[in-house]
Design a protein that fits this description.
With 268 residues, the protein is of the alpha/beta class. Helix content is 42%, strand content 22%. It contains ten helices and nine strands. It has a seven-stranded mixed β-sheet with strand order 5-4-3-6-7-9-8, with helices on both faces. It has a two-stranded antiparallel ribbon with strand order 1-2. Helix 7 links the parallel strand 4 and strand 5. The radius of gyration is 18 Å and the shape is globular. The N and C termini lie far apart (45 Å).
Length: 268
């Protein structure tokens, strides 16, 4: 059917809020609000942390809970995010459970454990973290309820504080919180702790999604959450290459209100 202006507005707003939280540890960026106005300083990290530790937690906890009450747009976003997670799990299953149980997995920006928990159920040793303590605590509670505390650990951490070495590092629906000039540094840091594989997803910067985002910005309201940044696939692939990784598998998830490009990259 045809896409109405309301659908475009909702889609644009959902792009602004489709993700699990994580943001760069960086000083505030100053943006010129207009030619005549003084610069406006933007601290993406603090904004994301505050949102997902407060009203954002309740909203996204419902979206990422199968029995949580949600509206039609939130249900569509739940479906889209679930499809992205399912695609990763399909890759994992096709590789065989043995390879999963023998390695370690870091899930950066884990949210409420949508990926970390099913990985642990498959036998993976998962070290997961989120910038929002409320999210990490909920993920830890869900894992404990399933008897997975020995398989999955959860902590509160921003991305730049992550250290160690893991066979696989995943960062799903997080790059939307990174401005383009910070994205390569984020990918490079993740690559520095990944021994074999990186799995990333991002909102693609195409003319269509860019138009949706700009349209949605004309209608500030309760659906607006944190700033949203789109990334071109070319830029992400370049950042992966500079970090020493090459793409091996890709997927695209697009529902009515959720758009996410998924890339698996292996170390060269």
């Amino acid at each position: 059917g045809t896409v109405s202006p309301i659908m475009l507005q909702l889609a644009a707003s959902s792009i602004l809020g489709l993700t699990v939280p994580h943001a760069p540890h960086a000083p505030p960026r100053c943006l010129a609000a207009s030619r005549a106005a003084s610069p406006v300083c933007v601290d993406d990290k603090s904004e994301v942390e505050e949102y997902f530790n407060n009203e954002g937690f309740n909203r996204w906890n419902r979206i990422y809970s199968e029995d949580g009450e949600v509206n039609a747009v939130q249900l569509d976003i739940r479906t889209g995010h679930g499809q992205t997670v399912d695609k990763i799990l399909k890759w994992v299953d096709s590789d065989g459970r043995e390879s999963l149980s023998d390695g370690t997995w870091c899930d950066a920006g884990c949210g409420v454990g949508s990926l970390a928990i099913p990985l642990a159920q498959r036998g993976a040793t998962v070290v997961a973290s989120d910038i929002a303590g409320a999210m990490a605590s909920e993920a830890e509670r869900r894992a404990a309820d399933l008897g997975l505390s020995e398989r999955a650990s959860f902590s509160t951490s921003d991305l730049e504080s992550l250290s160690g070495e893991y066979d696989t590092v995943s960062c799903i629906d997080v790059m939307i919180h990174y401005p383009p000039e910070k994205m390569a540094g984020m990918v490079g840091h993740l690559g520095g702790i990944a021994k074999e594989r990186l799995i990333l997803s991002f909102a693609p910067d195409t003319w269509y999604y860019r138009a949706l985002k700009r349209f949605g910005e004309l209608f500030p309201g309760p659906s607006k959450t944190t700033r949203a940044y789109l990334h071109t696939e070319e830029a992400v692939l370049k950042a992966l290459s500079e970090a020493g990784f090459a793409p091996s598998r890709t997927e695209m998830t697009g529902t009515n209100f959720y758009f996410s490009r998924l890339i698996e990259a292996v170390r060269q």
